[in-house]
Specification:
108 residues; YaeB-like fold; 5 strands; 38% helix; 28% strand
Length: 108
């Protein structure tokens, strides 16, 4: 049986989640609440299946090991994370189209 890892959310990831949900809420409060639930369920899924996300497509050597998983039901949003021995280290939650290499440099 696989052991569950604990989530660790970095401050930038928390800011990302809040910012995205605020932007969504401007036009649809229900969708914003669903987004928050979807982020949490995706993080929980990663805690159980850490390798579920793929390697982030970045050319930045500083981001070696960075992984990416689409937010469930919100495929335009991605969770960037590292798999650590005890945790899933959530570094950012970004919207598709953001410059991944630049964001990866902030994930160290």
């Amino acid at each position: 049986m696989l052991s569950r890892k604990e989530p660790h959310r970095r401050p930038l990831a928390i800011e990302d989640i809040a910012g995205h949900s605020e932007n969504i809420a401007e036009s649809n409060l229900g969708a914003a609440l669903r987004f928050l639930d979807a982020v949490e369920s995706t993080v929980e899924f990663l805690c159980q299946f850490p390798e579920a996300g793929g390697i982030a497509p970045t050319t930045s050597p500083e981001a070696q090991g960075l992984r990416v998983k689409l937010v469930a039901s919100f495929g335009n949003y991605m969770i960037l994370y590292y798999v650590r021995s005890e945790t899933i280290d959530i570094v950012r939650v970004i919207r598709g189209g953001q410059e991944l290499d630049q964001i990866a440099l902030q994930s160290r």
